[in-house]
Amino acid sequence: MSMPSSERDLATHSCGETTSASEFNFVSPAYPVSVGTDNLTCTLTIDHGCPLLKRESTCQLRIDFTEMIVQPPLLGSCSFDKMFINANGKYPILCGENTGHHMYLDVKGRASTDLNIVLEKLEQHLYECPDKFGIFQPDSLEKLSPSERQSDKYPSVNLANAANLPTASFPTRRAWKIKVEQIQCGCSTSSAAPDGCLQYYTGISGSVKSFNYDHIGCYSNDQVCDSTNIGACDIFAGFTGHLNNLDYTVCIEQEYGFCGTEYYQAMEIGSFSLTNTTDLTESSYDEPIYGSANGPACNSDYLLIPGGHCKNERNHYSSDRFCGNALGVMNLKQPIISYSKPFLFRVKTDADELTTSIDYLNRGFHLNYHQLPCSTNRL
After folding, report:
1. In the predicted model, is pLDDT for residue 95 greater than 80?
2. Which CATH number is associated with domain 206-210+246-373?
3. Quick one: 1-188 is in which CATH superfamily?
4. N or C, where is the chain less crowded by C-beta within 10 Å?
């Protein structure tokens, strides 16, 4: 019996190389060592063979970020480090921490596809900054989930000068290990994602995070902050936040005997924060949590859940769009149910964090989901 690819030693490729391998790892130079503080341009070319040979041609790439951490965004934009992809269609420009994420890329008809990572010189201002909100103080850690309290996720705090704000210091690691799988064309390919799905999840239950959800570092909402002079910006420790200019679809494979999906936010700070100001002092374990918005009020950064409605709403009034600082309706955090098929939701963010509303410390989203059996009363 053959060993699963996750347990095999895959070929490894790095900057400036071309590969036609069906599965491999794309790694930063000298991985797992950090690439350091200098700038770097890294391109890997994936050769799909001759697209005219349809029986052997590649239709999709699946890329899994085993580790992916570079400099974070500034005001939602990847102004310093970035990853971008040349494939069919438009794909997010990524930065910050995206370990654990995955993406499906449409490459049908292409002879090759480039994965590009561009690093600028390390900005120290993004890694050392005042802890204005006190979220990194020891007495604040009980508000966080167990995974958030891991020692490698949190900075050291310098309390030497009590007259000043404590300083938060963050690791400057930049490195990546990305597993790439070429998925051949054909209806017999079980590993392919449905058309239009950037992310594709399987299983009766699971969880979904926005890109850069896990990154904690130095954040600014300075409206006149210039990335070329970041030292002049007001910048503090916090969640570096979700990214601008996102427009993609998250899909979930419908299991046999299940007719709907229930979504609810994870129990941790900022687990649904897309617009307005995130309250870092609010414990996610407190009930109720206010701040949800839906419908026409969501016109900048929001999730679109087709046919989404409150779990106990008998009339199944559909809001579709959800934003604010809690997932729910009527200004309250509540689970959202959708019986729309296929199972999916759309992620939409605008071009900045300032034009439509002053969004501050918006982390993005971390949603849990489970599928609902067809026998369930639709409430």
Report:
1. yes
2. 2.60.120.290
3. Spermadhesin, CUB domain (2.60.120.290)
4. N
